[in-house]
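SAMPLE LOG
Freezer: B-3
Tube label: C17
Construct: single chain, 128 aa
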Amino acid sequence: MTNIRMDPAGIAPPVAHFAHGVLSVDAERILHTSGVVPVAPDGTVPKDLAGQAEVVWQNILAVLAEAGMSTSDLVSVTTYVVPGQDLTTVMTARDRALGGHVTASTLLVVHELAQPAWLVEVAVVATA
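STRUCTURE (predicted):
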């Protein structure tokens, strides 16, 4: 299986550390997550955005590991953040978790998430 970054020369380059698209060739397994929320294994939710983003990415890494995958298998990330948050904090947590791996990425500011305490939620797609 091969994931090929798609950043056509005829359009503006990405505005951050992501690809416009990722083409998966000969993928045998595809993992789609639900929105992964900032609930730690002990049921707690950090109060700050940085803490919540860390928990979300730890949870994503756990789901990937359960599927026998790693961040290098990620092809798409969709991030949902409530208004008034520092988006740089969210993107920094994503980039740190990905360790230099580049995916297609969408970041949306939404009115609210399912629980008022949640500031960020992330869904991913991985192929192997």
